[in-house]
Amino acid sequence: MGILEFDGQCYLDGRASDPRELGWMHGAPPPADKRITFESDCFRTFPQIRWSLSHMRELTATVNVWRGPGAPSHFQRQDRTNEIDALAFTDANGRPRRFEEALFDTYADGMVVLHRGRIVYERYFGALEPQLPHACHSVTKSYAGTLAAAFVHEGVLDDRKAISHYLPELYGTAWEDATLRQVMDMQTGLAHTEIYADENSDLWAYSRACGFRPRLAGYDGPQTMCDYLATVRKEGAHGETLDYKTVNTEVMAWVISRVTGCSFAQLLQERLWAPLGCEEDAYVVVDSAGIPMAGGGLSTSLRDLARFGELMRCEGVWSGKQLIPASVVQDVQKGDHSAKLPDGYSYRSQWWVTHNELGAVEARGIHGQRLYIAPEAEMVAARFASHPVASADASDLITMPQMLALGLMLRG
Amino acid sequence: MGILEFDGQCYLDGRASDPRELGWMHGAPPPADKRITFESDCFRTFPQIRWSLSHMRELTATVNVWRGPGAPSHFQRQDRTNEIDALAFTDANGRPRRFEEALFDTYADGMVVLHRGRIVYERYFGALEPQLPHACHSVTKSYAGTLAAAFVHEGVLDDRKAISHYLPELYGTAWEDATLRQVMDMQTGLAHTEIYADENSDLWAYSRACGFRPRLAGYDGPQTMCDYLATVRKEGAHGETLDYKTVNTEVMAWVISRVTGCSFAQLLQERLWAPLGCEEDAYVVVDSAGIPMAGGGLSTSLRDLARFGELMRCEGVWSGKQLIPASVVQDVQKGDHSAKLPDGYSYRSQWWVTHNELGAVEARGIHGQRLYIAPEAEMVAARFASHPVASADASDLITMPQMLALGLMLRG
After folding, report:
1. What's this model's pTM, rounded to 2 decimal places?
2. Least CA distance to B130: which residue of chain A?
3. Residues from chain A contacting residue B226 (CB–CB below 8 Å)
4. What letter would DSSP give residue B30?
5. CATH number of the domain residue A313 falls in
6. In a domain, A212, yes or no
7. A340 has pLDDT over 90
8. Domain that holds residue A358
9. Contact B61 A64 (CB under 8 A)
10. What are phi and psi of B339, to 5 degrees?
């Protein structure tokens, strides 16, 4: 049986942890040792996440993102599966790999690749099926950031204004004097930690408040996401450096909802799901006040994620209609040269900007979720995964060079 | 402001309790006094149910019933709204009423009427929209019973066999010596009460076990529906009289899942939602073992409920295909003459049989859910409601004569 090691811990590998083989949630009823529940918190541990990331709505409350009454938009196909599966590349540690095996080594649940808008590759693994929505985690942020940037472009929002201008209830909190743009670009100074491997990190208190993790008996913390956000205090300065904190996205989405009168789920439906002709309804985890979790709560089908990528690749145009202003997409692609990370990436409007030779931008989520848009290769790659390690570090070593190699191959 | 009285209690009437007017769950975030949460149990009290019955998935975990990848089936239309709204009839108390006002007086959330397969009437009220699934409550049972009867017809199940033949874990419980047919027809003797107005009724313990009501701090009862069912003991005899208990439906669905290897939600999808060309995905509330609640957990759009009614009216044929055996439908329509209630109804395979001049059968759920199929009038009427009183008694006085009058009008 295959074993992989990360951070000194051993895990079943991608094939050995196949959730169908392991029998999670199978049977009438499933045997006690094969059950995955929200209350036990085991839904977010490995290997259970290999099942649960394709079944989030069966674990907690969610709001629908309706695809609308129309027929789904159609993808043309030009199958290149064998060629792509055999693609050789070298990972960031200098180890030679092949595309298909790299998917198993990063616990992929599915991968769709578009080239010039056609599906050239589409495979599903583990518990995922084409119609099943899979947790996007922080890929959700890029949807929210794109909507925010579009509202700024349309003059509905002013990204130079302070958050407290829109949300007076946040006077006295970290966001009182942070501008909307600083929040959109995660350039805020917050007394709030986001370390996935640390059970005491503030991230988890936030997750409990917004219904993304169970609450222990006697829980007396914030009851809703908004209650939690009002507890965050400033530390350091705003506008100086990229400091990735999910709570920024929630504040950004809160501003959007306050000003538009629509929830994040409604806006996804009206601005993206219906006009893109998505195939399936998506959904978003909600807190106990019914607020969708814009920082990481979206689940969508893989092809519908690819549709969003294709919209971005085509500078906001879909079937001849400008759904997102071209200047919004161009602004994301330009990135933020003044705030590059050591790996060369920058972050703009909730997108990761690679600044690489393919002009690629990425939406990324924990456990290996990724939407990779490479205009110079006319490529969009959407992948879902359920990697044992939340932080992207473990799979990035493989996935980043893999995406680049794929783009270079397709560019030809 | 309009007030209605039931059982000596006063309630806002249908118009005054409009959930949009009352502002439930509106705002970013909704004000504390306008929130509806699962944990507080307020989601199932009036007037909050006027919102929550159209939003069950936002309150708890649910499993999807996929409509499949095809285009939805198309309804022809022949609008008779004005004529139907003006229809006069006399309620069971001898009071003259008109159709439209009777909908408000019974807290209707929506009503679709088909005549000869065409939509002649379609209206939505309160929080309901055409694409939104609404809680069916016990209308769910008639879906499950129809599937069970079809499996009996196909020889997959034998309705003369004892439940313990299929579910050995139920030896020593009420169901040990109950036959599948007795369970399907609710002719079991159970030490289990089902009184909606009594907070101490066993019904609520069952609801807490299967995730349909919140658990109080320190809850140490059964963790899942199956755990609960194993606690029910026999009282009296099986096969003697109709004694309506929802737990029978859960046992029936458990047998189906054990034998077919498919969950209730999967069977709804494969046998009904996809072949009927339903417009929207439906969903079912699940317990912490992921088991869908076949006794009352389904939410569906109103038009998709009407599709199921039309399938039954056409003796199981849809678009030229026999989806449910005709003999199954005929057996339901025949009812059970040996076990008629004082009001003339009998119960067969989880359907209410009126034995009236329209040959009508009904699926019925608490708070006013109803699917009324009247072959002699070539009519199907599907309605959702959020009546303050769970028991059907309050709205039946109006709705039963209303349905009959509508059928007689359409029969002409």
Report:
1. 0.98
2. A69
3. 29
4. P
5. 3.40.710.10
6. yes
7. no
8. 100-411
9. no
10. -135, 50
